[in-house]
Amino acid sequence: MGNEHSINLRHTHKITAEMSNEHSINLRHTHKITAEMSNEHSINLRHTHKITAEMGNEHSINLRHTHKITAEMGNEHSINLRHTHKITAEMSNEHSINLRHTHKITAEMGNEHSINLRHTHKITAEMSNEHSINLRHTHKITAEMSNEHSINLRHTHKITAEMGNEHAINLRHTHKITAEMINEHSINLRHTHKITAEMANEHSINLRHTHKITAEMANEHSINLRQFFLKGAAYRMRPPRQLPLIRVIFPASPREL
Question: How far apart are CA 77 and CA 68, in angstroms?
Fold first, then answer.
């Protein structure tokens, strides 16, 4: 089909849809769906068991309460994948992507503006040129990102982050973090257990309440490492410069004036 405005396929067992230039497509309560679509504006796939979606230039895609989803998409503006068990997403040029309450997610994305991955168990994210990425309450996350503006990874168990040219990165309440970053402006790693950070040309880096930190950094402007247990010897911090002592001698009597 081509150039459809609204398509509703509900309560079906098997659906094979090869569509292009649709404005709204709703596929709900289906068992197996194979969708190869391009230039869709809004696509809703809810309560499905298995979905294979190869889409490009979508504006809004909602995939909720699904068991397995394979999504290869490009130039999407908003993608919502919630309450899914397994998701494989290879996307590029997305503006907003929400993946919540999922068990396994594999995301290879580029040029995303906002990506939210919350309450997931395993996430593999290879992203570049993202503006804001939120990965919260996840168990395992592998993130290879570059040119991100803001990245929030909170309450995660394992995180592997290889990032470059990030502006703001927040990694909080994580157990293991491996961060290799270059040209970051602000990086906050708080309440983590293990952190490996190899960074250069950062402007502000805050690593607080961590257990083990290995930081190899160069040309940092401000580095704050407070309230952690083991301080690695990889980083060097110069002691503050001591001001010269100024001695003031008061006369013993008015005659000496």
Answer: 22
Residue 245 lies in a domain: no
186-223 pLDDT, tens per residue?
Answer: 454 444 445 555 544 333 444 444 444 444 443 333 44
253 part of a folded domain: no
The structure tokens listed for 213 are: 């930190």
The owner of tokens 């270059």 is: 182
Q: What is the DSSP letter of 245?
A: P
Q: What are phi and psi of 256, to 5 degrees?
A: -80, -5
Residue 187's closest CA among 140, 143, 142, 225? 225
Beta strands in 65-191 (DSSP E): 68-74, 78-82, 86-92, 96-100, 104-110, 114-118, 122-128, 132-136, 140-146, 150-154, 158-164, 168-172, 176-182, 186-190
Give the percent of the chain with pLDDT over 70.
Answer: 0
Q: Does the pTM exceed 0.85?
A: no
Distance CA 189, CA 104 (A): 24
Burial of 85 (0-12, 13-18, 19+ CB in 10 A): middle
Is 229 exposed, middle or buried (CB count within 10 Å of its CB: 0-12, 13-18, 19+)? exposed
Q: How far apart are CA 233 and CA 183, in angstroms?
A: 22
Residue 247 lies in a domain: no
Total number of domains constituting the chain = 1
SS (H, E, C) 164-229: ECCCEEEEECCCEEEEEEECCCEEEEECCCEEEEEEECCCEEEEECCCEEEEEEECCCEEEEECCC
What pLDDT digit, counting tens, does each position of 128-163 carry?
Answer: 333 344 444 444 445 444 333 344 444 444 445 544
Q: Is residue 23 part of a domain?
A: yes
